[in-house]
Amino acid sequence: MNTKNLVLMSLLVGVGAVLYIVIPGFNGGMKPDFMLTMMFIGILLFPEIKSVFLLGISTGIISGLFSTFPGGFIPNVIDKSVTAFVFFGLVLLINKYVKKLPVAIVLTCIGTLISGVVFLSSAIFLIGADVPFMGLLVAVVLPAVAINAVAFFIIYPIIGKLIKRSKFETALTA
Description:
This protein is mostly helical. Helices cover 75% and strands 0% of the residues. The protein has six helices and no strands. It has helices spanning 3-22, 34-45, 49-65, 73-93, 101-127, 133-165. The longest helix is centred in the last third of the chain and has 33 residues, at 133-165. The chain is globular.
């Protein structure tokens, strides 16, 4: 891992944090998590274990710091770390198709759903949050899946073009 990769990953996490903070909440303050979208883009650009670990931990900590969910810090760290490695596993599983935008969007939807389930489960079991799992899954996680898919559809091609122009070495340019 080199400095260029770290800088690009930190830029992705930073943009995700800004989007996460700026986007207004719905359903009692719950927000779609754009940190996930940027984490998924980072994993697609740098599909290696060290990068996945760094992206998962850093997005989890930053999401946790800005979480509007009561006691959401620890569930965010758990959720992003688990989701990062599951997403990475899916990327490795279908490696030759992952560069196609529709496949990447489907992976983003699956990853967002996994993230929501892991977050809600860890919040209920670890924090003891008294929240209706299915209600929040339908009211918050499923809309977040749709929003992240749209965001990914818009952001991923832009980042891909910028990287190709800059002759940056990533999985997209390999």
